[in-house]
Design goal:
- The chain has a four-stranded antiparallel beta sheet, with no helix packed on it. Strands 2-7-8-4 form a four-stranded mixed beta sheet, with no helix packed on it.
- The chain is built from no helices and eight strands.
- A hairpin with a 5-residue loop joins strand 5 and strand 6.
- By secondary structure, the protein is an all-beta fold.
């Protein structure tokens, strides 16, 4: 009779769930106020005009408009929203 558990069933299985990080709304796409644009760890992308950043560095839209990714002189990536004008 075996004195060890076979296949290690109860001692394994502690991998964490994936956190679903990354860009959710890409550049050129429409975002509605409150939409999450991207989830990240740290400030890989920094907030610019018309976007906010949560405590977990999630960037979200503050106004309705088109998402825009751009790099500035400091070579950092910035996310902004170009508002849709009502005419």
């Amino acid at each position: 009779m075996a004195h060890k558990k076979g296949a290690g069933s109860s001692r394994n299985g502690r991998e964490s769930h994936s956190k679903r990080l990354g860009i959710k709304i890409y550049g050129g796409q429409l975002a509605i106020a409150g939409n999450i644009i991207l989830r990240q760890r740290g400030t890989v992308h920094s907030p610019d005009l018309n976007v906010g950043m949560g405590v977990d560095h999630t960037i979200f839209a503050l106004v309705d408009g088109i998402v825009q990714f751009k790099k500035k002189r400091d070579n950092k990536s910035y996310v902004s929203i170009v508002p849709i004008t009502q005419e």
